[in-house]
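Help! Submission page says 'invalid entity' but I think these are all valid:
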Amino acid sequence: MGSIVLPHLRSAWHVDQAILSEEERLVVIRFGRDHDPDCIRQDEVLYKIAERVKNFAVIYLCDIDEVPDFNSMYELYDTMTIMFFYRNKHMMCDFGTGNNNKLNWVLEDKQELIDIIETIYKGAKKGRGLVVSPKDTTTKMIDQRIFEDLQTKIDEETTVRDELHEIIQTLARKGRSTQAILSRAHSTPADQLKPVLDDAAVEILAQKQEVLRLKAVADQHPFYKYNALWTRELQNLVTSIELCAWLGGLQEHKGPSSGSFLTIEEVGKFLEVPVNLKEQDAFHLTIEEYLLALISVVEELSRLAVNSVTLGDYERPLQIGNFIKDLFAGFQLLNLKNDILRKRSDGIKYSVKKVEDVVYDLSLRGLVPKGGAAA
Amino acid sequence: MGTKRSWEGQAVVKMDSTESASSTLSIFENFRDELDEHHDRRERIIKASRDITALSKKIIFALQRVRTTNQPIPPNITKENDTRLEQIHKHFASIVADLVGIKSWRYQRQISGGVQEFIEAISFDHYLRTETLITHAEVASRLPGILVTEEDYLMGIFDLTGEMMRFAVTALSSGKVTPTDAAKAGVLVDLRVIRARCEALSVSGRHRAFMYKDISKKKEVMQNSVEKVERAAYGILVRGSERPSGWTPDLSGPVEVEIH
């Protein structure tokens, strides 16, 4: 009965057309010989469910003697084979049999067959190529939803990470150009620094926009779940801000009370992000990030101390020396544990020593300007 | 420090830095308090996590003495484990306050080990009693106030397969379950189902460094576990007939030795 009513695909062209032209539904093709007992049994079942699955699947029959074109390609050696296609793509299904390409045994349980077709259709809609058959419930061991839910959660997280990643990439790219501009400070005398700092400020403000974009997305999710993704770039940005400010840029954002560097609150105010949130779960600048950024500033300034001398500026090393000694004293107050902050802050003392050596060399030769460090 | 190097600069340096230095110090004093609080909390959580891990392991050892599935756990083992569970819950309760709100994800990595081991223990217990896999929701309901991530759940399930392997091999070598029966129903079949489902999960490699980073390693261990049971079934089927009647495998030694 089934093989008479269900549509037949009479040539390879018909098969291709059937697979190609169906845009919305799953294409189910039974390959076999119409007179074969297995096929007769299966066709009967297919015929009975055709109406019930018609919203998401269309069923065709194909006689492998009449259309032998696919026999070797699809390895159609069984008496009866059912294959699934969606938008010209072969859908695989793990039936727990080891053969994921096709269903090659007669399945007479109508509900089970409907479930399989529906599962494959749902998987195909989500863009999967391989679906796990609900038929594999030889035991009731696993609640089917457990792994479906897990997969959904994994997919959701991947989407969030993709979205964040894209923003952070942009932030990083802009960060590199900020750093490139700021590194010109090493070769620019202090009195000609203004244009460099103005350029840097423009880039920093562009980065700030990215941070705000990041904040908008990150605020929808638990902060610390994704913090590791952007922490590095945010630190780099804070380093640039501090460096730029120390060199005399971004003056309008410096608080009146602050000495030579921006406090964490001032950085937060500048970036328009909260800092050091302890209760509220939202995007913010953490203390650790701020401190790590300061350590980078110290490292960068110790290099600048050397280069200032080369540029003939004997005053700046003294300023740098005072500043980083000040910070060093601050860092020594912290009780650091074995973590990144400790490793990085261990480097400060070498930076301090480097600058002290420069100052020593200068003063030994009487090169220190009188009253120099007052500037 | 270092100020005496230049008598010229010295006085100036002092004048200049005292004010800013004291403000810097007060800023850093504030940071110190914040960081101390963070480190103390972190250590409390790590300690609790370790204790929970140790207790969970003991629960699992006790459960490995069970010989049947789909039946209540024998009372002597239940009694033992109940006290351990109680202790575990005390440990969790002691750090719930440290893990509220934003802190739940901040210290997730510190507590994760304990949570995973706990999931392994209760999922094994759940499996032995009901022959079913505990759900994420059921796990979460047993840990009020604690964040149970999907990742922890999945990793716990991977570890569960190791326990199921040990259980199955013991059952097979005790002769209570024949290899042919094992292939039809029971632990081996369930292991294969879990394996198939876990293998079907697709985690994008783009974020490998950040999410589900242990998955490939755990997957491999799980695949090995399933294979061990399959080999054990095979070995007993093939070589079992050569054994003298009334012979039972020596269970005194570790079972794994037989199948390697």
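Support: the input was valid. A stray whitespace character was the problem, and the output above is from the cleaned input. The two ends of chain A are 100 Å apart (CA to CA).
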